[in-house]
Amino acid sequence: MHSPKSIIRVKRPNSPLSPPPTPQQRQSSTTVHKKAISKKPRKILQNPQPVPIADVKWKPLNINKSELYLPLTFPTGQTFRWRKTGPLQYTGPIGPHLVSLRQLEDDGVWYCCHFTDNEDNARIDLFDFLNMGISLDEIWSEFRACDQRFTELALHLEGARVLRQDPLECLFQFICSSNNNIPRITKMVDFISSKGDFLGNVEGHDFFEFPSLEKLALLSENELREAGFGYRAKYIVRTVAALQSKPEGGVEWLLSLRKLDLQEAINCLSTLQGVGPKVAACVALFALDQHHAIPVDTHVWQVATRLIPELAGTRLTPKTCKRVTDAFVTKYGKYAGWAQNLLFISELPSQKSLLPASLWNTDEKVSVKLQTKGHAKMKKEEN
DNA sequence: AGGGGACCTCTGC
DNA sequence: GCAGAGGTCCCC
Question: What UniProt keywords apply to this chain's record, in alphabetical order (predicted)?
């Protein structure tokens, strides 16, 4: 009995394909989910029925480009749940809300809710998700003071912000990311997401609320493997079970990690299957307010092994990972993760067009290999 | 404690 | 073919 989910299509007859972003032209076409159709009717009876927003209104956020530039915040590997739905426009779920953001050249960022049960809450949740409690202007000026290269990069990569994501969905996204590429990660995250409540369709993209732990528990390893998760299928199933076994509740347990020290939070996350130093750092930085967490990917590791000679020839372990994190924190301070995020973005091939060639990191992988793996080999041969 | 190797799958050289 | 992808686990 696979009846298609009930959808109310709200289309304005003359509306263009992409939602009009200008203040003069605020209404858009969108698709709204009729939430009354649910597998849990009793819940609907208990709660006031969400009011789908037929006429999507664009509202200003009053955030400058220096504080938030969407193309350097959304498609840069922090989240795999948002989609580009127009020029300088991105759409994605925030809790139970479906939101679009649009950058206007000289008028900051605007947003609209395609679906929500409460517009006031949506705006509050949006500011929280955008991590607006932290001023990029302030922390970047400190990075500039201590790093000439950061200063030069920042000139071209203004507004690269770190989001404050929901810990549960951030965790499963990054478990999917291990030893993986972005298109495939996105596909896997989409599969998991599709188990949550449908929120709407914008520009041909379906969006879902991230599934609850109870819904995630319905996923079997076989189903995940067939969906192309490979060996990560086991990680997902086991991590769901581990979270469900927490006395205070898995979601609450994850949220409680926001109050811990970075190392404690990393240690707790690392008890979960599929969570090593890299994934733990990503979740810590992108969801747990651990602003000095440093996701040590292969590139950071290669740079670090040259900066810290003792690390050359060793492997990325929790211990050596901490060495790298400490080095970054010593250099950049308590928001080191935000600094590293910009350095990471500057290395993305997709963002290189924003940088003058003089700022391209000319380190060829070959030469890095000679100095790291080659070094390791030489050391080994010496013995 | 730390190194070796396997692991799903897909893309690019 | 085979490394590499924003790694992690298991074993020795």
Answer: DNA damage, DNA repair, Glycosidase, Hydrolase, Lyase, Multifunctional enzyme, Nucleus
